[in-house]
Amino acid sequence: MSIIAILSSCENTIEPLSNEANKLVNEFVYDGMSLYYFWESEMTGKKPGTQNSMQYFDGLLNSTDKQHGWSFITDDAKALQAQFGGNPVDFGYELAFGYVDSTKTSVFAVVEFVYPNSPAANAGLQRCDVITKIGGTTLNLSNYMLLLGRDAITITYYKSDPSQNFTASLAPATIETNPVLYTNIYEYNGHKIGYIFYTSFIANFNTALYQKFSEFKQAGITDLVVDLRYNRGGSISAAVYLASLIAPRNVVENQSVYTSLNFNDYLNNYYGSKRSYQLGTYETRFQNPLTANLNLNKVYIIATEGSYSASEL
Question: Percentage of residues in the chain with pLDDT exceeding 90?
């Protein structure tokens, strides 16, 4: 997997560059992928020239990588870091898209969830709202990506009745994407069930995880449900922290191996035995997950085909 933070926008398009600029960017891409790419052996004979940098990057990718869409390129490294850190410039919603009919010309978007205090939330958008138009034009293959862009937009949407439409104007803003979006404790048939909806693995919010699991532990929950339906992964260290709150206490205390990483041959040799993550390990800025560990013998995970990367861990 590769993330080259230099070139494209969120729509994976780039502004035309001069030949000199293309060459500099391509050299950066080649150097990075020759060292870090899983398929670095395939870089032989692909040294950079002055060709379009997006096309050059795409031409370097292994076919398996292309099939799964693991690697991408961006021209806004700061925005990418903000997203990974949980403070992106964004509308504040997560969307799922579909075709209106079999002609596959018109598109609709369903709101999966909305972050609080975001432009989407302030405009009144809620989970399950259906967006049908942007700027008064029906959503289609040419304009739907504007819903995920960086420019102010006006949308048309409905809630439960397609005949009752609403409009909202949205301008992206810096938001906080705390992935611990919703928790609750349900009592049913003698069980006390803790539920957590976790949207992304962002290590900066491990404290929020800790606080909720402390509440679960204090309440004496008997069952745990972790909802990862829309969670597309993120930080491995956040996955370790979450797992350390859930896994049996003895394996966390023993710092059992949680996952081992496999790189290309050069990096496997370079890192040697330092390629594993252990349960119970955490950054000192966070609290020890063992003090909120639930020590249950079962956990229920809600997942979909969209639950990947760190969610798979």
Answer: 81
Tell me how far the alpha carbon of residue 254 is from its chain's centroid: 30
- Sheet containing strand 191-198, strands side by side: 180-188, 191-198, 223-227, 300-302
**What was the pLDDT predicted at 86?**
86
- Mean pLDDT confidence for 187-209: 97
Which pLDDT score is estimated for 217? 98
Report pLDDT digits (tens) over 35-52.
999 999 999 999 998 888
